[in-house]
Design a protein that fits this description.
Order of helices and strands of chain B: HHEHEHEHEHHEHEHEHEH
CATH superfamily of chain B: Aldolase class I
Strand order of the largest sheet of chain C: 9-8-7-10-11
CATH topology of chain B: TIM Barrel
Strand order of the largest sheet of chain B: 1-2-3-4-5-6-7-8
Chains: A alpha/beta (486), B alpha/beta (295), C alpha/beta (281)
Shape of chain C: globular
CATH architecture of chain B: Alpha-Beta Barrel
Strand content of chain B: 5-15%
Number of strands of chain C: 12
Structural class of chain C: alpha/beta
Number of helices of chain C: 11
Helix content of chain C: 40-55%
CATH topology of chain C: Aldehyde Dehydrogenase, Chain A, domain 1
Distance between the termini of chain B: 50 Å
Oligomer: heterotrimer
Number of domains of chain C: 1
Number of helices of chain B: 11
Radius of gyration of chain B: 18 Å
């Protein structure tokens, strides 16, 4: 080159924090029962903490057994009237909720980010718009249920208990509530203990939508609240999203009771890169697969299977790309990777990463400056991983990808299926015929071809094996909330 | 021999390009980004109606885009047709702003190689320090990669000391895989820069083609050790578009590409929008067109 | 002195614009003049619909659903005015209120179909060979509608909404005896983010525009609700020239009648496409 640079530059994006002055959060939230916020029977309020700063945001009531009983009674009483409404009238309530979420989108996004640590970029562009879309989609089903399950007559199940995790708090609430309400059930939702705030804003939205009293209850609390809820007399169905361990407990607790159950549990999903893939887009897909939401994603592509012939190139490009991830303040609009949701989760990640090192895998973590306060984990890649290692088997639920190699298509399929889980998988190849063959051979509920972590209210989501049973999204998502009468 | 194309997935490219378009560039980053965008600009006029007077006025603007904003640098170069190179070179003498010329039967490139070389020779003779050539899409679309490369090599030689920017005219190649392939051919044949478009085709430097070409540069540079520059031209008409291109460069190739030696943005109308946006960052008021000179 | 009111000029709705008939003609309706569309207005409307259709179909189903829902919102917010017009034009004793209720709800109903009809009408075909074969409905294209004369608004909405939900663009001849409600409804559509040209509404005489519409060769389907046997037969004959999909519907006078065979209404205005893809390494 003959032209000399006039100036040597480093161009960094200035901090671009999203404003929080438009938030209308209260200092303290009660339990949402019968259309109003109430004090718990035995007063107990716990702070909901911002994991990026460890500062409390608001105090939230935790529901005890008496509150659960009352919520079930109210839901029980409200259910016949709700189910008796014509489908088109139920639809209009749910459409209202969708519209109100859209109207309050930024407030919900910022709250989600404050409460859970996820980058604003994601809460703004993924969580909140998708939550609204789910309500919109299922609103449209409310007067078309017979078409969704192909039946002459259908009926709701009754009162449903729904427990959602902390990784996509509002979105998971939408996945649960929207189909339940569309089908004519009344619902009691328990948000996760670390991320109750957007569910409580959703309670306000139910009020604004003039949803009939008792159709939705929101009961924050921890595992004890959830345990009380699934054991409460008077419920007809449990829908749970969370860990396989808790899912197992719930299934056992419901043994012998005539209660419908759907479980969306953990995963150790394989993301398979073949040598004929579009490598640059595959690398983006790997990054999106494992670093989206700090890897707190049940379907995260945490087991990267790369064909040996391209492993070196893929690993080099992935590592270079990881170096460009922007880790830090979740409220900054340019942040790619935010805070780990809680101290407990950080501990779990650290423990498994230590195990990976102890077992002999090669660890590389991005050298990035992490804030002093809050819970953080740098994006990490393990290479030289063997299928026997814990980091190749257990769900880490953090920004940690384990790279394994394979030689042939058959080996890729065998390795991908060699897991107790079966939630999702990714396939990267330019050859469609191969992609469809591999997709049909994989024992996983969702298979993405040349993409990863795409969600849509019209597309069913759910797992094989210990990743759970039942589907959410699309017409398949109606079935768990309906009884076919004839 | 049949051509082998590396795989590029259209949907994936579009998603990544769009994602980088959502970077938030505010306050000091915006000011610095605008200064960089101006400093890498090839201020361009390529019209049948161009005259010496028009080119001189453009050169004055290139040297000092905004007298009221002294921190705004000169642009990198002024780009004109070969017949006006002499005028531009004289007007830019001693300013540090370089003279660039399109050549090789721009924009269609549908002339003989001899004519292309003569065109190039004339421009260099008249003082062009940079030559923007177009590849033969005729040869490329017919699958004749060897002829595409041979022409570039010949023009490269005719350029002598002058810098060669090779326009692949992405809108006419048919797919991102072809964009990547043409980028590689141009770099293998000795291009100092690869450039998206003539500005005369249906589409220009879309974020997607920029991303594909930047990834090709990254891979070529990694493999060969030779650094190649990138020029986005066509459709970069305002500040938001210019900053989006800078983000694409920064996050694909790195900050070291954000200099006139390695990056150019070919534009004309974007310059005043950059100045208006810059003024806004200082005054807090949205500017109006009349606040800056036309040329 | 009493203030003089500013009267509304009724216009056709073509290509997203509110225009007079190119013929310059109008038919009186009481004190008001209603534009009398010509064959050339039909031509312009079909051209606008053809131009808009691909873009409308290319929007995501979710987006189309939101736009139809927005149309329901816009209609609901204008209902007082349109109810008054319907009453003046002959819908007496609560009929106008019921008609508006139904029209809004029909729009909401079909808004909910946009992102469901593919999963309900389409599917994977378990073919006996190593292929992934699937069939999906696609919009048939530009649909002509000769709307019912009464109910003036619901009769139009009942035919329009399924055509739009399926992704078609529409040219409709509105009620002859009470055209104002439909032309007022055009203004609701005009503020619903519906791309220009997706819906085109013409007022005029059936003998003129009805046949001109049916005769247009760049129309893919014609829906006739005129209840006029002679016109229906003529439309069928014209349809045969270019194998248009022709259907004759009974008048939809209620929400139930407008939605009960909803899937049939939508399916009639779609084409099923079957794709085959090899499966194997």
């Amino acid at each position: 080159m003959t032209v000399e640079p006039r100036q040597a530059l480093v161009w960094d994006y200035a901090p671009a924090p999203e404003a929080t002055d438009h938030l209308r959060l209260r200092d303290r939230y009660g339990l949402f029962i019968a259309g109003e916020f109430h004090e718990p029977a035995v007063p107990r309020y716990e702070p909901s903490v911002n994991p990026a700063s460890e500062e409390p945001i608001a105090e939230v009531a935790w529901a005890g057994p008496a509150d659960v009983r009352r919520a079930v009674e109210v839901a029980r009483a409200a259910q016949p009237r709700w189910a008796a409404l014509p489908g088109r009238e139920r639809a209009k309530y749910i459409f209202r909720i969708a519209r109100l979420i859209q109207e309050r989108a930024r407030e919900l996004a910022v709250t989600e980010t404050l409460d859970g640590g996820k980058p604003l970029r994601e809460s703004r562009d993924v969580d909140i718009p998708l939550a609204a879309a789910h309500f919109f989609h299922y609103a449209g089903w409310a007067d078309k249920l017979r078409y969704g399950v192909v039946a002459r007559e259908v009926a709701p199940l009754g009162v449903v208990a729904q427990i959602v995790p902390w990784n996509f708090p509002l979105l998971m609430a939408a996945w649960k509530l929207a189909p339940a309400l569309a089908c004519g059930n009344t619902a009691i939702l328990k948000p996760a203990e670390t991320t109750p705030l957007t569910s409580l804003l959703l309670a306000e939205i139910c009020q604004e939508a003039e949803l009939p009293e008792g159709v939705v209850a929101i009961l924050p609390g921890d595992g004890a609240t959830g345990a009380a809820l699934v054991r409460a007399p008077g419920i007809d169905k449990v829908a749970f999203t969370g860990s396989t361990a808790v899912g197992r407990d719930i299934q056992a607790a419901l043994a012998g009771r005539d209660i419908a159950l759907t479980l969306e549990l953990g995963g150790k999903s394989a993301n398979i890169v073949f040598e004929d893939a579009a490598i640059d887009q595959a690398v983006e897909g790997i990054v999106n697969g494992i670093f989206f939401n700090q890897g707190h994603v049940c379907c995260a592509g945490s087991r990267l299977l790369v064909q040996e012939s391209v492993a070196e190139e893929v690993i080099a490009k992935l590592w270079a790309r990881m170096g460009r991830l922007r880790v830090g303040d979740p409220l900054d609009k340019n942040t790619d990777v935010g805070a780990v949701n809680s101290a407990a989760q950080l501990e779990r990640i650290e423990e498994l990463v230590r195990a990976g090192e102890d077992e002999g895998a090669v660890r590389r973590s991005v050298a990035c400056e992490l804030p002093e306060r809050g819970f953080w984990f740098a994006p990490t890649m393990f290479t030289d991983v063997s299928p026997v290692h814990r980091i190749a088997v257990e769900e880490i639920f953090g920004p940690v990808v384990s790279v394994l190699t394979f030689r042939t298509v058959e080996e890729a399929i065998a390795k991908a299926n060699n897991s107790v889980y079966g939630l999702a998988a990714g396939i990267w190849t330019d050859k469609g015929a191969k992609a469809f063959q591999v997709a049909s051979a994989l024992r996983a509920g969702v298979v993405w071809q040349n993409t990863y972590n795409h969600f849509d209210p019209t597309a069913a989501f759910g797992g094989y094996k210990e990743s759970g049973f039942g589907r959410e999204g699309g017409p398949a998502g109606l079935r768990p909330y309906l009884r076919v009468v004839r | 021999m049949s051509r082998r194309l590396a795989h590029v997935d259209r949907v994936g490219v579009a998603e990544r390009a769009a994602q980088l378009g959502r970077r938030s560039i505010k306050t000091t980053a915006k000011q610095q980004g605008i200064r960089i965008a101006v400093s890498v600009m090839d201020l361009t006029t390529l019209e049948g109606s161009d005259t010496a007077g028009k080119v001189r006025q453009l050169c004055a603007k290139a040297v000092c885009p905004a007298p009221t904003l002294p921190e705004i640098p000169s642009v990198a170069a002024v780009c004109v047709y070969p017949s006006l190179v002499g005028v531009a070179r004289e007007a830019l003498a001693g300013t540090g702003v370089r003279t660039a010329s399109v050549a090789t039967g721009f924009p269609a490139g549908q002339v003989s190689l001899a004519a292309k070389l003569r065109d190039t020779g004339d421009a260099v003779q008249d003082g062009a320090q940079e030559v923007d050539m177009v590849i033969s899409r005729e040869a490329f679309l017919a699958g004749d990669d060897a002829r595409v490369m041979h022409e570039i090599e010949a023009v490269r030689e005719a350029c002598g000391e002058a810098h060669l920017k090779v326009i692949i005219e992405t809108a006419e190649l048919g797919s991102y895989e072809h964009v990547r392939h043409a980028s590689m051919l141009a770099m293998e044949a000795g291009a100092d820069f690869i450039k998206t478009s003539t500005g005369k085709a249906a589409a220009g430097a879309t974020p997607e083609v920029c991303l594909v070409m930047l990834e090709a540069i990254r891979d070529y540079t990694e493999r060969s050790g030779r650094i190649v520059g990138f020029k986005a031209a066509g459709g970069v008409s305002n500040t938001k578009a210019a900053l989006h291109r800078l983000v694409l460069v920064k996050e694909t190739l790195g900050d070291e590409w954000l200099t006139p030696a390695r990056l150019r943005i070919g534009a004309s109308s974007a310059l005043n929008d950059l100045l208006m946006q810059y003024a806004k960052t200082q005054t807090g008021r949205y500017a109006r067109g009349e606040d800056f000179s036309l040329e | 002195m009493a203030r003089l009111t500013v009267r509304k000029t009724y216009k056709l709705y073509i290509g997203g614009a509110f225009v007079r008939s190119e013929s310059g003609r109008a038919d009186p309706l009481g004190e008001i003049n209603i534009p009398r569309a010509s064959r050339k207005d039909v031509r312009d409307a079909v051209a606008a619909a053809r131009k808009a259709q691909a873009r409308w179909a290319a929007l995501t189903a979710y987006n189309r659903g939101q736009i139809l829902y927005r149309a329901a919102e816009a209609l609901e917010s204008r209902r007082a005015q349109i109810e008054a017009v319907l009453s003046e034009d002959g819908a007496g004793g609560g009929e106008a209120v019921a008609e508006l209720d139904a029209a809004c709800d029909v729009l909401v109903h079909y808004a909910g179909w946009t992102d469901k009809l593919q999963s309900v009408l389409g599917g994977v075909n378990p073919v006996a060979s190593p292929f992934l074969s699937f069939s999906l409905p696609e919009p048939t294209g530009v649909v002509g509608i000769v709307a019912a004369d009464r109910p003036a608004l619901l009769g139009l909405v009942a035919e329009l909404a399924p055509a739009l939900a399926a992704g078609n663009a529409v040219v409709a001849v509105v009620s002859r005896s009470a055209p104002r409600a439909a032309l007022d409804f055009a203004e609701a559509l005009g503020v619903s983010d519906l791309p220009a040209g997706v819906v085109n509404l013409l007022s005029g005489r059936l003998t003129e525009v009805g046949c001109a519409l049916g005769a247009h060769r760049d129309l893919n389907a014609i829906v006739d609700v005129s209840a006029d046997a002679e016109l229906g037969a003529e439309l069928d004959r014209l349809a045969a020239e270019t194998i248009k999909r022709a259907s004759h519907h009974p008048v939809a006078g209620s929400y139930e009648q407008a939605t009960e065979p909803a899937l049939e209404r939508i399916a009639a205005l779609t084409e099923l496409k079957t794709a085959w893809h090899p499966v194997g390494v």
